Every structure is written in structure tokens, then in C-alpha cells.
Amino acid sequence: MTRIAIVGVAGRMGRTLVNAVEQDAGATLAAGIVAPGSSLAGADIGELAGVGKKGIAAVDSLAACAADFDVLIDFTTPQVTLANLAFCAEHGKRIVIGTTGMSDAEIATLDDYRDSVPLVFAPNMSVGVNLTLKLLETAARALGDEGYDIEVIESHHRHKVDAPSGTALKMGDVMADALGRNLKEHGVFERVGQCGPRSDKEIGFATVRAGDIVGEHTVMFATEGERIEITHKASSRMTFAKGATRAARWVAEKDNGRYGMQDVLDLDA
Ligand code: NAD
């Protein structure tokens, strides 16, 4: 039974994770961590998540619950996540990271921990999204440089703080790799004013932020005469939380290394 601690347990994903771990036969809720100094420290994490009393009081530091868990699930902010990663490496814990919005330098920091902690990092933990990445790789490879314009359109709720979404960027990366392009060079993230016609190789991104949209991604491959659209729509955060719980069970058995959801799901993308 994998003992799981959840960071940011009072957050949107944190509360959903409590539900997902509760429902998982191979995992058990071990601890929940709130922000330092939070008035929610001491609150029952089951009550925070709306699943009834669990008898586990939220703590406001990892040190306060280090003995209780095997795997930490972290959906917070880049700075908090990197500090928690260092803690896990130091204390022989494993970690599943769902936090998005990391800079390239912060993502590179994850690699510094390859030899000191088993970690899964994925900007999207949904099984459906990870299968979609595989479909996009196949489509990009097949369509190649045959005149198909690629555009990624993503929509999320009004509270999301980073754009484009980590998932949209990951989709762009997978397709750029399949096409021998570089997203840094070919990604177009803004079009405004007299920006001229699109170039053949660019991969365009458009962002919608509105209401309570959980997460929608459409990739369009458009050419003269036809258009292919591959769409994934998340209707509940439970899809991410279930994927993260599955990743936590999986990484509990792994050696040090940085893994992604493709590894967890054995999709090899
Ligand atoms: P949120 O703001 O609702 O929750 C974040 C929580 O972290 C808050 O409750 C905050 O108080 C807490 N927190 C901040 N500092 C902390 C600290 N030092 N210790 C403990 N807790 C701390 O945000 P959210 O919607 O739950 O999203 C969190 C992150 O997860 C974002 O980066 C989001 O993009 C990402 N996300 C990833 C996936 C995925 O599948 N990988 C899916 C959904 C969201």
C-alpha cells in the first residue's frame, strides 16, 4: 500500500487528490500539507476535501509529516515544488510533480535530481491526454512537411495563472520533435497587428481563459481542402488526480530517475 502525502491539500487539485487517493485500492492517504502559516493547518484533510473526517490533520511543513509518507504528490507552484523536491531527495522520499508554469531553467533543475530521487513530472497527468500526445506524434509524422498548418488552441478556467498551458506546450514539443523542428524557433505564441501571413513551419498557439473550463485542447492540422482536428476535453479534475495517484503507485516501485506519464502508462512517446 503506497502511503501518499498531498501538498497544497486545500487547493483545487489538492482536494481532488484526496478524493482520488481515497478511491484507490493500492494507495492510502498519509498526510496533507498546507502553505506555511495557513489558517487551515490543523483542519481535517478529509473535511477540507468534502469526503468526511479522515482523522488526518493538515500540517504546514513537510518536516512535520516526513515519517508518515512514501510518495509526495505536488500540484502547487514552481518555487514550492522545487523546494519540496530537494526535501524528498534529502529524506529518501519519492515525488509526483504536476505543477506547471516552470521556466526552462526550473525544468532543467528537475534533471539535477535524476540520481537522487525517483520523480514523475508531467504537465498533464490525464491518461487521455497522454494517449492524445501519442496520436499527435503519429499525425505529425504522417503529415510531415506536406503543407499542413499546425495550430494548438487551449481553453482553461479564469483562475489559471500560466499560458499557454503546460499541456499545450507539451503537445507542441511532441509535434516539433516528430517533424524535426524546434518549438523555440517555430512556436508562435502571439499574433497581433500587422503580423503578416503565417510561415509554413510555424506551430501556432491560441489561449482562451474563461469561467470554469477544466481544460480543453484542440490541435488543428489544416491544408487546402481538408482539416484534421484532434481534441481532448477534461470534464473534471478527477482525471488528473487519478493519473497522479496511478503515477504515485508506479513510482513507489522505481529507482532514482526522472520519469513522465508516458513511462507510467508505457506509451513510449
Ligand atoms: P490552487 O491555487 O487551487 O492550489 C495550489 C495550492 O497550493 C493552494 O491551496 C496554496 O495555498 C498551496 N500552497 C502554496 N504554497 C504552498 C506551500 N509552500 N506548501 C503547501 N501548500 C502550498 O491551484 P490548482 O488549480 O490546484 O493548480 C496547482 C498547479 O497544478 C498549477 O500549476 C496547475 O497548472 C497544475 N495542474 C496540473 C495538472 C496536471 O495534470 N499536471 C492538472 C491541473 C492543474
Task: Characterise this structure.
- The protein has 269 residues and is α/β, with parallel strands linked by helices.
- The chain has 2 domains: 2-121 and 237-264, 3-Layer(aba) Sandwich (Rossmann fold), CATH 3.40.50; 127-234, Dihydrodipicolinate Reductase, domain 2, CATH 3.30.360.10.
- Helices cover 34% and strands 23% of the residues.
- It is built from 9 helices and 11 strands.
- The relative contact order is 0.17.
- Bound molecules: nicotinamide-adenine-dinucleotide.
- Nicotinamide-adenine-dinucleotide binds at residues 7-8, 10-14, 33-36, 75-77, 80, 98-101, 122-125, 240.
- The site of nicotinamide-adenine-dinucleotide has 24 residues, from α1.
